[in-house]
Amino acid sequence: MTQDPAAPKRRYAPRLPLEERREHLLDAALRVIVRDGFDKVSIEAIANEAKVTRPVVYSAYDGLEPLLHALLDRTQKRALGQAMKLLNESGDATDIDAWLISLTGGIIEVVQEDHDTWHAVLYLQTAPAVVRERVAETRDLIRKYIASALEAGIQLRGGPDLDPQILSHLVLVTAEEFGRLILEDPPRYEKKRLVAAMANILRVLPKS
Q1: Smallest Cα–Cα separation from 108: which of 194, 185, 169?
Q2: Hey, which end of the chain has fewer CB within 10 Å, N or C?
Q3: Which residue, 79, 180, 182, 185, is CA-closest to 138?
């Protein structure tokens, strides 16, 4: 069978240094996960997404498992780094209301700017156990930081008399849900609307 000379040739990604190629493949794997789910990830799917051949993938990673572990490491580091930076830069937790409002706005901006990373973190229905466990570890670190800030902030605010450990779970779940709303329907759930919702919730809480 002869090949049609008029048929377009498949376009491949240009040659890259090894570290750049690895990052390129991790980006491709992340796009596959976001679009198709964790259960659809394969060497073939990643190669197609990255516009390279399977041997190119195997030249960068020994197989699918090492590639996915590298992606998990990168995603955890990136998400935790963004979250901790946001928590530290959202203002002084001595004004807990302003801190939570600033935090809400910052969460929305981070998810908008790095939506693929946060999609992988927030949607775990088809994720393998190792991914769910790593995300749970990251969530717990963030929640403990929030609980510590809430405990100090509530005392300085003069109330209400709420358990900061329990409240930290509610704050984290609310932040995650806001992130999902931004990913699923950004025109409907814009930043201004979500920040206003948080401000209204805080406004009705008694201070003593």
Answers
A1: 194
A2: N
A3: 79
pLDDT greater at residue 158 or residue 34: 34
Helices assigned H by DSSP within the chain: 18-36, 43-50, 54-60, 64-89, 96-113, 115-122, 129-157, 164-184, 191-203
pLDDT tens profile 191-204: 999 999 999 988 88
Query: Average pLDDT of the chain?
Result: 89
State the pTM of this model.
0.82
Task: Supply the pLDDT for residue 66.
Answer: 95
Asked if 167 contacts 153 with a C-beta cutoff of 8 angstroms, the reply is no
Residue 23 C-beta-side C-alpha neighbours within 13 Å = 4
Q: Are 165 and 147 in contact (CB under 8 A)?
A: yes
Structure tokens at 171: 């704050």
User: What residue type is 48 in one-letter code?
Assistant: N
Please tell me what DSSP assigns to residue 90.
S
Q: What is the pLDDT of residues 93-108, one digit of tens each?
A: 778 889 999 999 999 9
Q: What is the pLDDT of residue 155?
A: 83
HSE value, Cβ hemisphere, 13 Å, CA-based, for 203: 6
Cα gap 125→104, rounded to integer Å: 25
Are 111 and 182 a contacting pair, CB within 8 Å?
yes
In whole angstroms, what is the distance from residue 115 CA to residue 88 CA? 21
Q: What token pair was written down for 102?
A: 């600033």
Tell which wins on pLDDT, 95 or 159.
95
